[in-house]
Specification:
310 residues; alpha+beta; Phosphatase 2c, domain 1; globular; PPM-type_phosphatase-like_dom; metal-binding; magnesium
Length: 310
């Protein structure tokens, strides 16, 4: 599991970060959660003109937003550890988190965050100190029946999106969430170590003017909390029961078998993702999570946890 959240620099972030400690369904600590992240925007007050008189009208620009970003993750069947499974993204010391590093497949696999089949990333956009890309991806577990590790696709996908955002060579305001999803997907398709797999995804880009754009594909999703209420939430995209929209790398053999035996393989594209645009306000909390969260907690449950005392 993993999470990305935007919020004011106060207890909101702490409440989200400590959420897994107090919730333990069926003896498991967020076993089905996938990547989530949280960040809260705070405004910097413009300096006031203290002179008693000025001949020209006073012009003030829109206040800039600053964000706090944190991630919580826990692989399925693994015991949650606050020391290992909570990540705080500090743009002063990090360009990105959620990257895979290594010269070969094994080294890259060992460098992954401890989030199981689900993955996450947070990255500065083109080294901008207060413009970020972030997202969660839910590796489809059904691939294990074909001998494929579902984590390979989701972690590579998130790692490539983090790299693409970090290396973005234009203004941060020009990067779109669906564009970033497309770039990460294209890189995953040409990665020869990823011969099969699929994933849902919820991807966001945030700028320092408070605008946030989300692209959601499948049953991962987002919830925006404002003024101690659920302000907006995404709607899952599904083809059928337990068949969410998903990005895929489909081996020719499996595609051929499906054609022979009449099965159907869904191969959705980033252009199919739903796009949502927000203008965040001071104190907003934006949560991105995979379906493991929403299968166990509804929006009101999350709201109560977020605003509970202590």
């Amino acid at each position: 599991m993993a999470a990305v959240t935007f919020a004011h620099r106060t207890p909101c972030l702490r409440g989200l970060a400590t959420l897994p400690r107090s919730w333990n369904p069926a003896g498991r600590a967020f076993a089905q959660w996938s990547p989530t992240a949280s960040a809260i925007p705070s405004t910097r007050r413009p300096v006031q003109n203290r002179r008693p008189f000025h001949s020209s009208p006073h012009v003030s620009s829109r206040p800039r937003m600053t964000y706090r970003i944190a991630v919580s993750s826990s692989g399925k069947g693994r015991r949650f550890s606050p020391d290992k499974n909570i990540y705080s993204f500090d743009p002063a010391t990090h360009n990105a988190i959620g990257l895979q590093r290594g010269r070969n497949y094994l080294e890259r696999k060992l460098s992954r965050p401890d989030s199981g089949e689900d993955a996450f990333f947070v990255s500065k956009i083109n080294s901008h100190p207060n413009a970020f890309a972030f997202g969660v991806a839910d590796g489809v577990g059904g691939w294990t029946q074909s001998g494929v590790d579902p984590a390979d696709f989701s972690h590579a996908f998130c790692s490539y999106m983090a790299e693409c955002a970090s290396n973005w060579d234009a203004s941060a305001h020009e990067l779109r969430a669906r564009t970033l999803m497309q770039m990460g997907y294209e890189q995953t398709l040409v990665d020869r170590s990823i011969f099969a797999g699929s994933s849902t995804a919820c991807i966001g880009v945030a700028r320092d003017d408070g605008t946030v754009q989300l692209a959601n594909l499948g049953d991962s999703g987002s919830v925006l909390f404002r003024l101690a209420a659920v302000h907006h939430y995404s709607t899952p995209q599904t083809h059928d029961f337990n068949t969410p929209y998903q990005l895929s790398v489909m081996p020719p053999l499996i595609r051929m078998q499906s054609a022979i035996f009449g099965g159907r393989q869904y191969e959705d594209l980033p252009q199919d993702a739903n796009v949502t645009n927000y203008r965040l306000q001071h104190g907003d909390v934006l949560l991105l999570a995979t379906d493991g969260v929403y299968d166990n907690l509804n929006n009101q449950d999350i709201l109560k946890t977020r605003y509970s005392p202590g």
